[in-house]
UniProtKB/TrEMBL annotation:
Residues 35-190 form the NACHT domain. It comes from Dreissena polymorpha (Zebra mussel). It comes from the Eukaryota. This is NACHT domain-containing protein. InterPro entries: NACHT_NTPase, P-loop_NTPase.
Amino acid sequence: MSQVTIEKDGSRKKTGNPVNQYKALFYKDEKLSSRVFVQGEPGMGKTAFLTKLALDWCDAVSEHNPDYKATFSDVDTLKEFQFLFQISLRDAMDQREVIEMIKTQIIDMIYTGNKRKQTVKLLPYILEREKYIVTMDGLNEWVDRLNKCVLPLHPQFHTECVSVITSRPWKMADERIKDSEINILIEIEGIIDSEDLTKKLINSLQTGDVKMHAEFIMYVNERQLMNLLTSPWLQTLLVNLWLNKMKFSGSLCEINGILLDILFKNAHGKKGYFQKGNSFRCLSNTRFIQRQIDIIDALANAAFNFTFSSSKSLVFTERELLNFLSEDQLEFCLHAGVLTKRYSFKIADQDAQFLFLHETVQEFMAALHIANSKQDLIKQFRTGSRYNVLEMSQTIIYLCGLDCKIADKLINCLVDDEFLQVISHGLSGYIKGFYKQEHLLAYQEDSCAQKNVLKSKHNQMDYNTRCLALSVLFQRMIIAGCIEARASGEKEICLNCRDFTFNTNLTESDSNALKLLLLYNCADVRSLILESNCLQISEILTVLNQSKHCLTRVKMTLTPEISKALHNTNIQELHCIGQLDVSSCSFVFPSLPQLTYVHIEHTRLTQDIVLLDTIQEIDFLKCESSSELLCASLITLSLLDHPVKCVLWDVVLQPFEKSRGDDSHTHIPELRSEMLSNDMSNIKISVDNGSKELFDLIRDTSIGILDMRTAKCATLASEILHTLNKLTDLHLCGTYTGRCDIKLPASLQCIRLLEGGCSSEWLCSLLITISSLDHPVECQLLNVVLQSSEEIRADEAHTHILDLRSEILSHDLSNIELFVKNGSAELFELLRDTSIGILGMMTADCASLASEIILTLNKLTKLYLLGTYTGRCDLKLPASLEYISLPDGGCSSEWLCSLLITLSSLDHPVECKLWNVILQSSEVTRGDEAHTHISDLRSEILSHDLSNIEILVKNGSAELFELLRDTSIGILSLMTAECTSLASQILHTLNKLTKIYLQGTYTGRCEIKLPASLQCISLQEGECSSEWLCSLLITLSSLDYPVECKLWNFVLQSSEEIREDEAHTHISDLRSEIQSHDLSNIEISVKNGSEELFELLRDTSLGILGLMTAYCTSLASEILHTLNRLTKLYLMGTYTDRCDLKLPASLQCICLHKGRFSSEWLCSLVITLFSFDHPVECELEDVVLESGLSASNYKLDWQRALYFKKIKSGITRKSEAHTHILNIRSQMLTHDLSNIKILVKNGSAELFELLRDTSINILT
C-alpha cells in the first residue's frame, strides 16, 4: 500500500512511501482524517484489507491471541477506537446514509425485537460521542438512488470518526469527488509478501508437502505470469491451476473459464467437451461447461442486463434473476458458488439478495453475452458520459479476448468526438511539457487513474490534468485488450487506436502490445510519441509515410531519414528529442503547412529557423544561439497576426560583439532598430535561467507577455521591465524576499505569481507598486507560500509586520484585483484593513482563511468565490460590497441561504452571480431530518427582505429555484432558456421582484407566470419565436399597472412548428390574438429590431415605445402611425435629413434622448408635431444638434431673412445647405406651434437659435 499525494495543480502522484502503520492510514499531520480512500484494481485485495482491519481491531480491543499476526506493527493504534462498523456498499444500493447501512447490515443481523429497537435508538448517540471507524467496501459498486450524491451521506459533525472507503480507480476519476473531500488517498497494489501467501495457499490446498513453492514459481515463470501474482484473487486461482495440473495460456478469459469449470465440477455438473471450433477458445478445454452451456448463456444474459441496464446493479433479487434463469438453473449456480445469496434484514423487506462471486466474473459473463449474441447489442450502448468507455474497461478487455472485432466495434461506439478531443488535448499538454515524467505514472500501475484532479473549470491546468489522465487510462485499456487478445489466440488484433505513447514507464509486454497496435493502425495515426527506443527506423518510416494525411502530433528523435519522411505532412505539434540538425529544420519546417508548435533542445542554432505563419509556440530548451539569430526570430514572430509564445529555457546567448565578429557591429543596430519599430505585443516570452544579455536584447521592445520561471530571472529583468511599453501580463515563479524593487511598466494589466514563495515585505511592496498605476490591475497569487523575511530576527518580527501594514494601509489599493488560490492566515492578515478593490478566492479553504478580514476591506466592491461550500456561511461582508460571484463549484442550501441573508443586511443594491454552481444537499443533515431542515432554512430566508439583491443564474437547478420560492428577491437574471424553464414555476411567488432579465432561445408559447410586483422584463441576448413574444406581451398586458419590456439583442425567429406554407396564416392568427388585448400599460424598448418584430406590433395598442437606434426607428417608421394608443415615443441614435416619421394621433410625448440630430430633422419633427390637435410634449435630453452653421451665423442669417422678406428682395446666392436650413426655418415660422411644449436638458446655443421667433407655447 502506498500513499498518493494530490499536487497543487490537481494531479495525483504516488509518493513511493509505503503505508505500514495504522497511524499513517488514519492520521495526517497528527490530525484524525475523516475520509481515507483505498483504491485498487479488481482482485488486488481491497475487500481482504478491510476484513483484516476488522480482525486486527477485534484482536486489539479484546484479549490478544498470541498466535494472531496483525497487518501493521502499531495495532495498538486501533485501541483508540471504541467501535468499528463494516459496511458492504454493494449491499446498500437503495440506501444513501451510512447510519441506515449500519442499521441494516449490522444491527438487524445481530439483534431482534425490542433489543433491535433499543440499539437503533442508541446508535445516533454513539456515533456523535464515541471515536469509531466505519469501513465502506466498493464505492464503485454503489450509486445514489437519487443520483445526487457521489459518496454515502455521513454527518460531518462526527469529528471523532474516520471513514475508510475502498474503490476501483475509475471511480476515483469521478469529477464530483473533490480533492477537498479526500483527506488521505492510499493505493493498494496487491500482495506485500507474495511468497508467503503462495506458501500458505499451497499448504492449505494439499495434504502433506507434496509440492513446493519453488516448483510453483518455475511454473509461473515459464508462462510469463509473474505479473498476476500481485493480485490475491488471481494468485489463488493460479495456485489452484498448478495444483490441479491444468494447462494455461495466461488469458484472463481463460482464467474465468477455468474458474467456472472448477465451480461447475464442484456442483457435480455433467461432464462434456466442446467440439473443436464450436466454442470460444477460453472454454475449449473445459470439462463441465459444455453440458451446462444453457446455464452459462442464461447467466451471461443476466450479467449483461444487470451490468448495462439503465441502472447498473451488482445486487439483484430472485424475481429479477428468474427473468433469465429457471429455478433449477438458479439452484445449480448457487450450489456451484457462481452466484451467492444473502438476506436483507430490513424489517419491511425479507427478499433474498443475489450477486456474482466477484464483480469481475459478472463483467466476464457480460462480455461473453455480447460476443455470443446473434443480435447487434452494440446499438444499445450510448455515450452517456466521457467516462463510459473507461467504466466498462474490464468488460472491454474480456471482449478483446473473446472477439476482438466486436470489442473494437463497442469501443468505437463509446468513444465519441468529444472523448477523442479530450485525449488529444491531454497529449498536446504532455508533448508541450506541461507534465514531467514523474507525473506520468507507469501505465501498468493502477495509479494512472489518479491523474484526475479538481474539476473546477476556471482552472485550465486542472482541465489539462484530467485530459492527460483520460488519455493514459484509455491507452492502458487498449494495451490490456491487445495483450488479452493475443493470449486468447485471436488471429487478428483489429483494435483501432490513433494515439500512441511509448515511454520508459511501459513494461516490455506493454511496449510489444502497443507496437503491434501501432503497426495495425499505421495508416491512421494521429499522435506518435517515442520517448523510448522500441521501434526500428523502418517501422517509424512506415507509420510516417502511411499516416501523412492524419498525423498531427509527433515527439521523437529526428534522423535524416525521419526528417525527410516528415516533409509535407499535416503535423501540428512537433517535439524534437535530442540534438537537431539545423539544416534539416530549414528543409522540414517550411513544408509543414499546419505546424503550430515546435520544440527544439540541445542544439546550437547557426542559422534562422524558418517557420510558416501558422506557428503559435516555439520552445528552445538548452540551446545555444547568437543574439543576432534570436533578434531575427523575434522580429519574424512579431509579424504574425496572432498571439505566439517563445520559450527560452536554459538558452545560452552569445553577446552581440561575439556573434559575427566585425560584421555584426553594422548589422546589430539595424536589427535592434527593426525590433523596436515592430509591434511585438503578440509575443509571450517565457524565460528560465536567463541572462543579462537576453534581457538587454528585449529592452524597450513592445512584447505583450513575459513569463519568468525563477527569481534570478526576475532580478536580471528588473532593470528593463519598465521599458516594455506594451507589456500587459507578467508571470513570476520562484522565491522572493526583501523589498520588491521591480519597476512595472504603465501598460501592465495583470501580474501572476504562479508558484514559489515570497516574504511579507516583498508582497507588500509589490502591492504598493501596483497601486501607483492609474488603472485596474489583476494580481493573481496561485501556488505561492508567504514566508517570513530572512532578514528579520524573531524579536523584531512584530514591529516589522506593523511597519509593513502601516505602509500598505497608507496607499489606495482600490485599483487592484487580487485572486488567491492557495492562501494562508498570514497572507490575509497582511491584507486586513487595506483598500483592495476586488478579491477572488479560488478555493473554499481560501475563503475560510479570509473570512475574518473580509469585513475590514473598506473599499472592496467585488468578491469572487470558487470551490465547494457547506454548513452555514459565516462570511462577514464589508458595507462597500456591490457584487459577489460564484463562478464555479458547489454549495449547500444552508450556505446559500445564509449568504443571501447576509447580503440582505447591506443597505444598497448588490449583485449575486451564480454561474456554474451545483446546489448540494447538506451533509450535516440526516435523511430523516432533511425536510425539517429545509423548512427551517426557508422560514429564515422568508423572514428577511431580499429586495436589494439581484441574482444572476446561468446553470441553475430545480432545487435552487425552490429555495428562492416566495422570497423577496428584487431582481432576477436568467442566463439560459433552461434556467427560465426551471424558474417558471416559482417566478409568480417572488412578491418583491421588480426586474427580470432573460437570455437564451425561446420557442413555443410563453408559459412564464409573472409576479404582480414586476416593473420590467428585459430580453438581453438571444432568440425567440413570434409566438413566444406575442404570448409574453399578452401576459404583461394582464398586469394592471405600467410595465417595461426591453428587447435588446434579441432575434425574432419563425416558430419551428410552422411549415412554410402555413407561416402567413400563423402570423395572422398571432396578430389577431395580440390585437385583441389592451397593451397600453406596456412600454417596449427596442435596440436591435427587425421588420418582423415591428410587423408583429402593427395595429396593437402599445402605450410607450422606445427605439434605441436610428436603424430601429427606420424599421418602425412604417407601423408607428398604426399604434392607436401610443402616448410616448423615445428616440435615440443619430438622425439626419428630413424627419419623415408618421406619428399616431394618440401621441402625447416624444423624447429625444442622448442622440445626434440635424437641424433639418429636428425642424421637420417640430412641424410634424404642429399637426396634432392636442398638446404634445417634445423632450430634448442630452441632444447634440449637428449643423454647419454656428450660433452667430444663425442669428445673422435669420436677421437677413427677415429683412429680405420685408423688402421682397432677392438674396445673395449661398450653398444649398444654407438655403435649405433657411427654408426649414421659414416653414417653422409659418406654423402655429403653440400646442407644443418643449423640455430641454443640457441644451446648446444652436438648439435655442433654431427655436428663435417660433410660436412654441411652453419651454422648460
